[in-house]
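Sequence, structure tokens reproduced for reference:
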Amino acid sequence: MFAELAVYSFLVLTISGVFLMFFFEPSMQTVRYTGPYAPLKGAQMSGALDSTLHLTFEVRGGLLMRQVHHWSALLFMAGLVLHMLRSFFTGAFRRPRRTAWVMLVLTFITGLGLGLTGYTLPDDMLSGLSLAILDGTVKSVPFIGSALSSFAFGGAFPGEVIIGRLYTLHVVILPLLAAGLGAAQLLLTFVHKHTQFPAPGRTNSNVVGEPLLPTRATKSGGFLLTVAGLTVLTAATMTINPVWLYGPADPGNATAGAQPDWCFGFIDGALRLIPPGWELQWLGGTWPLAMLVPIAVVGLFFAVVLAYPFLEGWLTNDVRQHHLLERPRNNPTRTAIGVAGMTFVGGLWGAGSADVAALQLSLSLESVIYFFRFMTLLGPFVAFAVTRRICLALQRKDREVVLHGVETGRIVRLPHGEFIEVHQPLDRFDRWRLLDFDPAAATSPIGATDRPVSRVGRRRTSLSHWFFEYRLHPVTPADLAGGPVKEPCAPEHQEDEQRAGRTDDKAA
């Protein structure tokens, strides 16, 4: 459903964007505002902002469509993020869906590009600040930064062509790229079929679900109407990006308390966490590390996310085809890596609002920045350790429930005087949900051959052991078939069955 949420939000985004195209003018030519909004009467602004205000106050339904466009863009990005998290934590990115994962991450990056280009088009004070940050980021590139900035802006910042170029990217190039990536993912879904959680009758060689026509298509159509209706309702009742309050862009000014859209918060936060004045003199030039380091860190993070399916496949030497999903608790290391990554991004994201947080909480800005630095640098390690412990505890609980049933709280005295608690065995459908049908096994290249193993091979073995060592082996159907636990029996025999299970478990 998260993937469908992203697709349907993109559809609403496209329809509303087509409406806006008829009224928006991507011009940076200076004009004088003569519209009905009194506080800006007579103010000089670009043609882009003037057409945006005309669309907002003079076109019937213009403000509604602007806000539908903005809210659907945020919902589109939220759907992509939720879909990526679901795919990661359940192992849906494994073979044969590694290519689909790469396309999903590229779609998210394309969505960031769509958001950035659309965010700057109105040429108001807030979007002008975004352009100034973009200009500073481009200029920080060693040796060629100034030339790149001059090329992008058509001269000195802010130039006279950047809005038109961003408009072309926003309405033509990036939408086609996003649509192409989405179509490719849909095609791969038809080829590889949907992943599914283990359940009775489900295997790695079949798909158990509803037929596309008419059942699934009907439900999906209802979901489309729900997403569209809630987006319009939100746009009609909640104001977003009120450009008339910000006024025209001014390269010499910035809006106090400016905040980007939520999906850009981690990028803004990365820039805020770097100490000011952090730069290096090298090779006859100045290297502004305060800009280069955040760019490098964010770029490296996306590179790791893109390559993770291949890294895990190399680490585990797993070349099997996976169509059954994995419960996150059954792979503690992967789950801990995901939570550590979320903590890292969360620290950056929170730092993007450090000034607002300091103001609202009556704290110094420096203390808030130090907190988010700690959260970004040390928080992932703490989150990793805690998450693995939680997953291990949940695995132990599942194993106890599968082997001995659910605690009933009823104490029974046996004929020889022993007191035991009666457990209610699970029915086979609940038990099926807790079993592991795709047990992973670490490989050991060193033990697989008598030939000398390279340093890379030894490192691979060490990492493989680290990946698999911190986990219990979940109960499998084969283990259960040979174990003491049986199908639920009649109530009069449940106590004897439970006592036998407890005795066999102690012996084991």
